[in-house]
Structures are given as C-alpha cells and as structure tokens.
C-alpha cells in the first residue's frame, strides 16, 4: 500500500520537482551570499513560486502528475543527506542524536499515516449508489437511523463504548471528493500524506505536523552550530560550496516551518472548538450548523418575515472537553 503510493511514475516527477526547487534555492544563496534572511526569504518564495508554476505547466504538457507523498519523502531524505555529508561534523553529539532520532520517527509516522484508516464507513444499504448521488448532503438525511446503526465499520466491529457514541458520531460522517468515500469526522484530504484526515487518524496527523516543525527547527539549530564551527572567515563564507548548500537548505527549512506553524495553529484551533476544516468551510451545507433567526423588521418577496442564517457549533462542549474527545479518538 505504502510502496504503491511512493514507487510510481509520479514519484519520478516528484524527484525532478525536488531537484529543481532545491537547485533554485541554491542559486539564490549563490548569487546573494551576503544578503540577510529578510531579503533571502521573500526572494526564495518568489523563485519557488516560479519554479512550481513552470513545473505545473510541464506536468500538464507531459500528462503526468507528481506524487505529493513521494515529494515529502524525497525532501526528508534530501535534508538528511545534506545533514550527514555537510553539517554533521560541526554539530554537537546530543543534537546529532536528537535530529537523527526525530527524522527516523518522522519517517515511521509518515509511513503509518499513508496507510492509516481515517474512519472509513461502509454502509449496508440495499442501494449503495444513492450514497454517492449527493456527496455534500448529510448522511443522516439519506439513510434511516436503523440503517446507520447497523452500518459495518471499515475495520471490523465497534466496541460497546463506541456503539454508545455512534448516534452522535454518525452525524459527522462526510464525503471525500478525492477518495470517493465516507469518513467519520472528516477534516480534509491531505495531498502531502496521500490520505483523508478523519476521526481515527487526526491525532496522528497533528502529531506528525508537530514532528515536522520540531525536526526542521532542530535542523536549523544544527545549521547554526555548523556556521559557528566552520564559517569564521568571511571569504570562505562567500565562496564555500558547502556553506551555499547548507544555506539553501536552511532557507527551505525556514519556509517549511513558517507555513507549518500557521497550519498547526489552525488545526489546534479546530481541535479546541471541536470543528473540522470541512465543517468550518462548508457549514452552510450542514443543517446542524445553521440557526435561522427571524428579523424583527423586514419581509421577503413573499410577504413572510425576513430571516437570516447564523453559524452555530453544536459539537463545542468547552475547550477541556473538546481536547479530551480529541485525544480519545481511536486510530
């Protein structure tokens, strides 16, 4: 399963994409050796957007798309390779152990989430085709509650405790347009991990996101030690191939940390208020998030009192309880 997602023609396209992205960052560091990070970061973003845009055009012409999971894995190994070949000699023993351990755990977690069950739901309906007829319609409006309660889970039978919570959980079964499946607690489809993020693997997803940030922050700390240990002479600093390679990889890591921190903050917000990304974006499509309020003044075209729809979150039970429910979610 994991190998099928990584070893394909799309993976070769991902490998080429990684090469050109890091080559562009290397050239930025090469031609702007004395520039500050405040200058290099926006320039790097602009160059990467150009490279990604050109890559997208080329992929459309060739007719082959890249594999996002393979892109992530190749980037991890590239950073690891630069660390081992260039940076490691100037890094302390403790930081070396910490960084290598973080990357090893990160790869294991990545392999796990690629094949994890986000909470797939298989219904025992006599007419399963009607489940796909309107993917944005709430599942509970399509099937009777008796059918829902007898639904077969993707992985075996549920426990007694889980059966007691089933009536509540089934209200949050959503459809993934990418995978064409229904998922309990569906948050979003993550291209980087090649899988849906739902109730059963959301904890793993957030943990992996934290792991990426920590490992990239550790890599930046390793680069700091490398710079202090090896780069004392300004002339060497400007001409060293190793320094340019290390600097370009640091730019990549910084850019990754910046967007991942924002992404993590968003998901922590969702966890604290017990809402998913899909629900927050598409709340007008889910009746339980809608509260119709009648306005005191004004009438519509039919002469009826005017109303407006407000957002409510029926699943928000306070931050502490929401955190408990999140951590109790089983993979």
Automatic annotation (TrEMBL):
> What residues does the Palmitoyltransferase DHHC domain cover?
171-284
Q: Where are the transmembrane segments?
A: 12-32, 38-58, 70-91, 97-115, 203-231, 251-275
PROSITE patterns the record matches? DHHC
What InterPro entries does the entry give?
A: Palmitoyltrfase_DHHC, PFA4/ZDH16/20/ERF2-like
What are the UniProt keywords, alphabetically? Acyltransferase, Membrane, Transferase, Transmembrane, Transmembrane helix
Q: Which reaction does it catalyse?
A: L-cysteinyl-[protein] + hexadecanoyl-CoA = S-hexadecanoyl-L-cysteinyl-[protein] + CoA
Give its E.C. classification number. 2.3.1.225
Q: Name one GO cellular component term.
A: endoplasmic reticulum
Subcellular compartments: Endomembrane system
Q: How does it sit in the membrane?
A: Multi-pass membrane protein
Instruction: Give the molecular function GO annotations.
Output: protein-cysteine S-palmitoyltransferase activity
Could you provide one GO biological process annotation from this protein's UniProt record? protein targeting to membrane
Q: Is Lipid biosynthesis included in the keywords of this UniProt record?
A: no
Q: Which family does it belong to?
A: Belongs to the DHHC palmitoyltransferase family.
The free-text domain note is: The DHHC domain is required for palmitoyltransferase activity.
Name the record gives this protein: S-acyltransferase
């Amino acid at each position: 399963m994991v190998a099928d997602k990584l070893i394909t023609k799309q993976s070769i396209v991902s490998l080429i994409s990684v090469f050109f992205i890091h080559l562009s960052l290397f050239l930025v560091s090469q031609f702007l050796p004395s520039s500050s990070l405040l200058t290099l970061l926006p320039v790097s973003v602009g160059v990467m957007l150009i490279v990604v845009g050109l890559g997208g055009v080329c992929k459309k012409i060739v007719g082959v798309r890249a594999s996002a999971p393979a892109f992530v894995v190749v980037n991890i190994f590239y950073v690891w390779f630069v660390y081992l070949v260039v940076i490691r000699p100037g890094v302390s023993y403790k930081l070396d152990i910490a960084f290598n351990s973080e990357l090893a755990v990160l790869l294991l977690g990545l392999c796990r989430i690629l094949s994890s069950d986000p909470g797939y739901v298989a219904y025992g309906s006599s007419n399963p085709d009607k489940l796909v007829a309107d993917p944005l319609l709430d599942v509970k409006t399509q099937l009777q509650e008796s059918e829902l309660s007898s639904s077969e889970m993707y992985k075996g039978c549920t426990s007694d405790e889980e059966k007691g919570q089933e009536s509540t959980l089934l209200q949050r079964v959503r459809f993934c347009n990418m995978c064409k499946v229904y998922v309990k607690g569906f948050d979003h489809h993550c291209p980087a991990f090649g899988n849906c993020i739902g109730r059963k693997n959301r904890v793993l997803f957030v943990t992996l996101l934290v792991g990426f940030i920590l490992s990239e922050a550790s890599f930046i700390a390793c680069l700091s030690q490398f710079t202090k240990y090896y780069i004392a002479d300004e002339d060497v600093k400007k001409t060293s191939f190793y320094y340019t390679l290390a600097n370009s990889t640091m730019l990549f890591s910084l850019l990754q940390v910046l967007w991942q921190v924002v992404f993590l903050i968003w998901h922590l917000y969702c966890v604290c208020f017990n809402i998913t990304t899909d629900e927050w974006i598409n709340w007008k499509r889910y009746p339980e998030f809608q509260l119709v309020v009648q306005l005191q003044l004004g009438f519509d075209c039919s002469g009826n009192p005017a109303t407006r729809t407000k957002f409510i979150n029926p699943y928000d039970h306070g931050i502490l309880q929401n955190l408990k429910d999140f951590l109790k979610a089983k993979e």
